[in-house]
Amino acid sequence: MKRLKFLIACGLVALPAFIVPAIGAQSASGAAALDASGNAADGSTAHRAALVQKLVGKWRSQVAETYQLEESVWVNDMAGTFAQVPIPTLELALKARTFDEMNAILVPPPGLLAGPAGSGSVQPKALGDIGTDLVFVPIAPCRIADTRLAGGQIATNTARHFDVTAVSDYSFQGGSATNCGGAGAAGSFAAGAFNFTVVTPPAAGYITAFPFLAAQPLAATVNYAAGDIRGNFAIVKLDQGASANELSIYAATATHLVIDMVGYFIQAPVPPLDCVETVSSNITVNANSTGTGSSPACAAGYTIVSGGCTMSTFDGRIVSSRQFPGSNTQFCAFRNENPTNSNTGVAYGRCCRLQGGP
């Protein structure tokens, strides 16, 4: 698994000629293309080569020990990345404290951006994204497709597309004749949790699961040998567009495929508010006088969101109506302009919490 994780992060094109001498020199003496201070002496090309030298020197032992890769193999696989990333990214990668952090800087995972120079961190692009801030809904394992029952083998070097959401009956693609415990009726969801099983392929190969209409990634979901019945679990992002299909499966060699869904990820619903009103007892304001009072404080777990003040006759007026920070009450100040009779005021507050809260 560690080897696979590493290979996914690697570039796959040949190392440009301007980097080859620097890499070779690193293996031989560790000093080529550098001036006395350890920096490149002849511009950006040499500077890139120098940074690559330092990266290789810093991580060569971990590559050999953890991934059982020879240095030359690693350098060749990483050549495209070393050649294409901006020089500031190489400089930031050189400051990484761990190998995983270095890889994440050179090839950020989807949805992440390298942090600012010197931060050694990876930052999220956004908060509250409807495609990433999700809740998982587990279901009993349910078959949504079986090519032995519908469609036949996926042909060599082709992709087949499957319907996952807004389905009342999956039997048309070889699956259950139900909506899989409500999954088919849940509307569009951003990702699914699946068990993919290849069944007796005639030759070795692999399948790749990816969102419908998306570019096929350079990754394998299940690797298999001839005659295998082999499965693997994967969480796969799904297309949320208007098309009927949401999931695509590429097969490097012909194979039958069974897909079982065990859950899905959907945007969290906004919970409704649970609100109550608190009302003070009558606040007496004498003739031609002022008075003050407050609503009872909200109960534990509730927060005051609004409130108000009233008086019993038109002789009274509201001088002030507000909520003081931290008080969780509605404050009222009254003025009774009747020259002979008293008046009464009332303060009320509206206290709310999210349902399911304490």
Characterise the protein shown here.
This protein has helices spanning about 1-10, 20-30, 45-65, 70-85, 85-95, 100-105, and strands at about 110-115, 120-125, 135-145, 160, 190-200, 205-210, 220-225, 230-235, 245-250, 255-265, 275-280, 285, 290-295, 305-310, 315-320, 330-335, 345-355. The protein is an alpha+beta fold and about 350 residues long. It folds into three domains: about 1-120, no CATH class; about 135-265, Sandwich (Jelly Rolls); about 275-355. Strands 3-10-5-8 form a four-stranded antiparallel beta sheet, with no helix packed on it. A four-stranded antiparallel beta sheet has the order 4-9-6-7, with no helix packed on it. Strands 11, 12, 14 and 17 form a four-stranded antiparallel beta sheet that branches. α2 crosses α3, α3 (about 45-65) crosses α5 and α5 (about 85-95) packs antiparallel against α6. The radius of gyration is 33 Å and the shape is elongated.
* Strand runs, count: 17
Along the chain, the helix and strand elements come as: HHHHHHEEEEEEEEEEEEEEEEE
Stated plainly, the CATH topology of the largest domain is called Jelly Rolls
> What level of helicity do the residues show?
10-25%
Task: Tell me, rounded to a whole number, the average pLDDT.
Answer: 79
**Looking at the structure, what is the overall shape?**
elongated
Largest sheet: 4 strands, antiparallel
Structural class: alpha+beta
Q: For the terminal residues, how far apart are their CA atoms?
A: 42 Å
How much β-strand is present in the residues? 25-35%
| Total domain units | 3
Radius of gyration: 33 Å
Classified by CATH, the class of the largest domain is Mainly Beta
Uncertain stretches: 1-42, 108-127
Number of helices: 6
